[in-house]
Amino acid sequence: MKKEKDARGRLIDKYGQVTTRQYLVFVLTLFLIKTGGAAWYPAGCEIVEHSPNGTRVNCTDPVCKNPSFESSIFRWDGHHIIVTDEKRLNRSTMNMSYVTLQVNCEEHLTKIMKIDVLDVNDFPPIFDKGSPSLINVSEFALPEQTIWTFNAADADWNPDLSPRFKFILKGFLTEKYLKVEGSTEASIILNKPLDYEHLKKEDLTLILSAEDYCNFPCVTNYPVKTSNFTFTIHIKEEDTLPPIFQPPYCMTFDVDGDNGNESQLACANAMYNGTVMHDTTTINMPTPIRAKDGDEQLNAPIAYRILGGNDEKIFSIGDDGKLTLNDTAKKKYNQTYNLEILAVQKNNNFRSALTTAKIRVIQQNNYPPKFCKGRCGYIPSTEYMVVVFECHSLSPLRVLVCDNDYPPQNINPNARVKLRSQDESWATLTPDGYLLVNMSNMPPRGGLSNVEVTAMDLETNEATI
Ligand SMILES: *[C@@H]1O[C@H](CO)[C@@H](O)[C@H](O)[C@H]1NC(C)=O
Ligand SMILES: *[C@@H]1O[C@H](CO)[C@@H](O)[C@H](O)[C@H]1NC(C)=O
Ligand SMILES: *[C@@H]1O[C@H](CO)[C@@H](O)[C@H](O)[C@H]1NC(C)=O
Ligand SMILES: *[C@@H]1O[C@H](CO)[C@@H](O)[C@H](O)[C@H]1NC(C)=O
Ligand SMILES: *[C@@H]1O[C@H](CO)[C@@H](O)[C@H](O)[C@H]1NC(C)=O
Ligand SMILES: *[C@@H]1O[C@H](CO)[C@@H](O)[C@H](O)[C@H]1NC(C)=O
Ligand SMILES: *[C@@H]1O[C@H](CO)[C@@H](O)[C@H](O)[C@H]1NC(C)=O
Ligand SMILES: *[C@@H]1O[C@H](CO)[C@@H](O)[C@H](O)[C@H]1NC(C)=O
Ligand SMILES: *[C@@H]1O[C@H](CO)[C@@H](O)[C@H](O)[C@H]1NC(C)=O
Ligand SMILES: *[C@@H]1O[C@H](CO)[C@@H](O)[C@H](O)[C@H]1NC(C)=O
Ligand SMILES: *[C@@H]1O[C@H](CO)[C@@H](O)[C@H](O)[C@H]1NC(C)=O
């Protein structure tokens, strides 16, 4: 809005009203008349702290003609205010940032003069001697919880005044888990619970920096000073995880779902297969049933229970996870028992895990598996992948596993045949037992080669070569 002036020179707005600014000037004038003889000297006297004896105080305006004052720090040399005791110009011991002088001018006029003492940054911040370098934080500590408060001092400030700092916290994953707040003391605050397992069980090393402020008023280009304090956060593992059946199936996946690089390991309980001979009570478990506390350090003791699939109550499970069977008569051949097994921490029944063990009743096993025949074969001379023929025959060589437990053919249908690893570069065994050879890879051409085959009875884990 463009301001106009009226006939008396006052500012008026577009409606011809005298504006507020003009009223303010009137009020100030009244105040000056009322306070009369004693008044603040117009601003602008300053001296840098520790200025040596004899230094002139820098004033933008004169005090008055022939001033006089009583002071143990300054004197009047006829033209300027001069420092007489530099030791008193020390902001570390002053509780104010200025010195006042009562100045007597002519005509019995007294003025109160203020001389600003500009701070020089003589000292860096110092963290309390007693600050711990190791802080224990529970996994249960919640966001916004203050986990520690560090105190710092700065000798540029009178001890009766609170120094102010800019605190910065740096370290591994710091922004995500922790922050620092405060200007006179540094409160370390949790942003996110410290998950012991996710943080790979490592202690976090952090650096807390304190940067000092201008102790106003201060010299221009005030050089800030920094101190660092290094401390470690030890994450105290708590009972956060249930037991897990071993060996767990683990995979990494993107927890945030943001396709970022932050993936977490997630693990599922192992499941178990086992067999029991029709006529015995010995349960054959290729992988024994065992659960372990997910909180590795705590490693709470585990108890096992069969929750389901044991309607006839023939199975029981021990404190070591071992399944036992007490009744052979009720088992039917080829029957499968799906046992639901619970593992629970003995010290906390809210921490539990569930799995399934499939126990199959199999044919009795009195004979080991063995290769029926065909220990000799020949290869027609071609350049390609060929099937091996049985010696003295026109039929392809087939590796079959004989087992007298399976009459009348005595061939074990549950056997799995595999090549031993060193032959795999040039020979292949098909799932039904035919042997293929890659001629271009076969080492001694034309001569004799041996192929070793292993056979395993999948039901009993018996092996033969
Ligand atoms: C005195 O103060 C004026 C204005 O603040 C400044 O420009 C000048 O550099 C100062 N002189 C000294 C000697 O400090
Ligand atoms: C400055 O003056 C004070 C008081 O007059 C005196 O005690 C002090 O020793 C002097 N300092 C120097 C460096 O001369
Ligand atoms: C200012 O006072 C502090 C605190 O007594 C002292 O440590 C420091 O040496 C003094 N500075 C000077 C320049 O004398
Ligand atoms: C500052 O110290 C002086 C004496 O050194 C004392 O008289 C005055 O009350 C103190 N002022 C404050 C604000 O503490
Ligand atoms: C953290 O725990 C360790 C050992 O458990 C102990 O020595 C240390 O004093 C603890 N730190 C704090 C700040 O309580
Ligand atoms: C404090 O640490 C910062 C970086 O973290 C570094 O730039 C600075 O030099 C350190 N200061 C001291 C006094 O060690
Ligand atoms: C994840 O990616 C960000 C930026 O893409 C990178 O700063 C950070 O170091 C990465 N973290 C890990 C654990 O690779
Ligand atoms: C248990 O048997 C099922 C099929 O019968 C199979 O899919 C699974 O991989 C087996 N598990 C183990 C641990 O052998
Ligand atoms: C053994 O079997 C009987 C009956 O078949 C059953 O009542 C009993 O609970 C079983 N004992 C154990 C220890 O499993
Ligand atoms: C065993 O049971 C499976 C499926 O339950 C069946 O396919 C198989 O023929 C049975 N074997 C015998 C020998 O009864
Ligand atoms: C046979 O071996 C050669 C040389 O290693 C290879 O390039 C070729 O793919 C193999 N043939 C077959 C059918 O595996």
Automatic annotation (TrEMBL):
Keywords: Calcium, Membrane, Repeat, Transmembrane, Transmembrane helix
Signal peptide from the UniProt entry: none
Compartment(s) where it occurs, according to its Swiss-Prot or TrEMBL record: Membrane
Pfam families: Cadherin
GO molecular function ontology, one term from the record: cadherin binding
GO cellular-component term (any): adherens junction
Domain spans labelled Cadherin: 129-245, 268-371
Transmembrane segments: 21-41
Tagged with keyword Transmembrane helix: yes
GO biological-process terms attached to the record: adherens junction organization; calcium-dependent cell-cell adhesion via plasma membrane cell adhesion molecules; cell migration; cell morphogenesis; cell-cell adhesion mediated by cadherin; cell-cell junction assembly; homophilic cell adhesion via plasma membrane adhesion molecules
Xref: InterPro entries: Cadherin, Cadherin-like_dom, Cadherin-like_sf
CDD domains (UniProt xref): Cadherin_repeat (cd11304)
SUPFAM superfamilies: Cadherin-like
Name by which UniProt lists this protein: Cadherin domain-containing protein
Organism whose genome encodes this protein: Eptatretus burgeri
